[in-house]
Amino acid sequence: MLVRELRVNPGAMDPGATLEALGLDSLSVVELSVMLSEHLGVRVTEDQIHDVRTLAGLSRFVLSHRTR
After folding, report:
1. What domains are there in the chain, each with its CATH number?
2. b/e map of 32-49 (b: 16 or more CB within 10 Å)?
């Protein structure tokens, strides 16, 4: 989703990369929140996305909250 929908550079997809370093701005974070809910059944707020800070943190959060 990050690469396809939010146009994150695939080469930047390092687990330790911060979401800011991946180029996610406030609009991208809102879009990501909606996509996670629609596609994976994970309800996550924009604040929660900011709190996880890294791609690895986001992955852990999604895996621990996935309902589908």
Report:
1. 15-65 (1.10.1200.10)
2. bbebbeeebebebeeebb
